Amino acid sequence: MAVSSFKINIPESELKLLQRKLELTRLPTNLTNSQWGEDNGVTIAKINELFDFWKTKYDWRAEESRLNTLPQFQTPVEVANFGTLDIHFLHSKSSSTKDVLPLLFIHGWPGNFTEIEKALPLLNEAGFDVVAPSLPGYGFSSYTEKPGFKKEQHAEVMHKVMTKLGYSSYVVQGGDWGSWITRCIAQLYPSHVKAIHLNMLEMPEPKFDQQPTYTPSEKAHLERRTWFHEKQSAYLHLQGTKPRTLGFALHDSPIGMLAWMCDKLFTWSDAYPWTPTELITFTLLHYFPGPTTSMQMYFENDSESLLFGESASKYVEQPVGVSAFAKELVIVPRSWAETRNNIRFWKEHESGGHFAAHERPEELAGDTIEFFRGVWKA
Description:
nine-stranded mixed β-sheet
């Protein structure tokens, strides 16, 4: 059950197959001048531009080499009733020799472990040992063949990675799926998890004796929450009901996978200037291992249990911090959050979207450092 070093090394045969698939790509030609379509930036012109860049300029081996400068590892983790999974993770240690604070960073979909990359120097310099696993079924972590692998199992895996590394006490930061799993870890392992920080927070509206007065930013967050659920949640229903069926299409088509990713990366961020290389690398970190197992999370964790289940309703006793970025998909008002969480830190940001660690690394790292340093062993 040892921890071993890990380097990304996609077989040359996979890269040759990818190149052949790109050469055989069949893009629509009857939509070029259409005036209709989703307002998400995934246009024929944009995909053609990315397609041309991918074929002629993109260099996976250069990206692979860059990613391999990050300290990566893999370890087998035994999961109750699900057997052993091989879990991939980044583990970047602080050079500090005193007051080191272990931080578990949990990504979501369509993210990956590299989301924390830009914030690593700031966190390490501030005395944080950062552990950023690939969730089971994502990237270079394996996935179970059994059904029923829910957020509680993901939490078990994350906790066991931390204890295997010798961190008996630690703090956790999470967004997207990471926010759900982070709250779950805090509830399942309260003697180990000392505090949690979230940059996404969803829950149903509580029943108040007197309706709260909302700030302008809270009203804006509620409007964006409504927009997300009414206009942007089709993917959630599709991946929550047909992940395997959708997976056949995305697994086989690199351009199809790119378009599916771009829809989320463009729409969920806050005017972030995604480069073609960033978009393609994010895509390939799902495409190479296959996208189906990561989408299975939506099938296994239905909205009813996420919002109203035992874990969702249970109060988090440990200190909870929240960074509310202006264009995050879902940030409920603080008055709502306080009914289920011991809120000790709350900071509003005028910009920034769903991929906070990647879009606004200084702000997210700054909030994380300020909050966790303030409550660690307090």
